[in-house]
Amino acid sequence: GAVVSQHPSWVICKSGTSVKIECRSLDFQATTMFWYRQFPKQSLMLMATSNEGSKATYEQGVEKDKFLINHASLTLSTLTVTSAHPEDSSFYICSGQSGAQEETQYFGPGTRLLVL
Amino acid sequence: GQQLNQSPQSMFIQEGEDVSMNCTSSSIFNTWLWYKQDPGEGPVLLIALYKAGELTSNGRLTAQFGITRKDSFLNISASIPSDVGIYFCAGRWEGSQGNLIFGKGTKLSVKP
Questions:
Q1: In a designed cystine with B23, which of A2, A22, B82, B89 is the match (CB 3.0 to 4.6 A)?
Q2: Bigger pLDDT: A103 vs A13
Q3: Are A52 and A81 in contact (CB under 8 A)?
Q4: Which of A49, A95, A98, A105 to mutate to test the interface with B (most CBs of B within 10 A)?
Q5: What is the pLDDT of residue B41?
Q6: Closest CA relative to residue B60, chosen from B45, B48, B77
Q7: Does the distance separating the beta carbons of A107 and B43 come in below 8 Å?
Q8: How confident is the model at residue A100 (pLDDT cuts 50, 70, 90)?
């Protein structure tokens, strides 16, 4: 149980274009979903937290107008990287949490983004 | 801000050896989680700890929630080649509103 999927698994795009990444909880309802970014050989850095039906909460230094997050249902959250630039190239990972704050987060397999 | 210190940064061991890694925090945590991440994939939960002093096993893995609530360790016994990967500790501190903070990871290499 507790499976999270991401789509696409990797994407290459031109600078200036927008990219949408989907995160789905397949066998549980994710009240809260988290989006992380991971650069090579580094740890996961939280970008934002989203609760179903409400606006996402962004971590300090993360531009909310550049990284648009939508958590429209209890099983789907999307991250859109708008006007992507090469420095946005990274590994983006989402996680879902089913209930109370002490619940475990289950991670998706990640999306590798390369902006040319 | 909150910080987690995870050590060692990397380990090179022989198959069959036991492994130990740990994390320490600057403040009191109420949850400790240990994840393993393979290259190009998301982290997979290994063990979750919720109470000070808690000792939990998952096969050859054992993790403990330190009694001071500021540290946790993960042990792997009788390592095998498929244990290779990066192990991350993660935790929630009081007042984190559910958010996790991650350690920098321990890269484990196992020589057959």
A1: B89
A2: A13
A3: no
A4: A105
A5: 92
A6: B77
A7: yes
A8: low
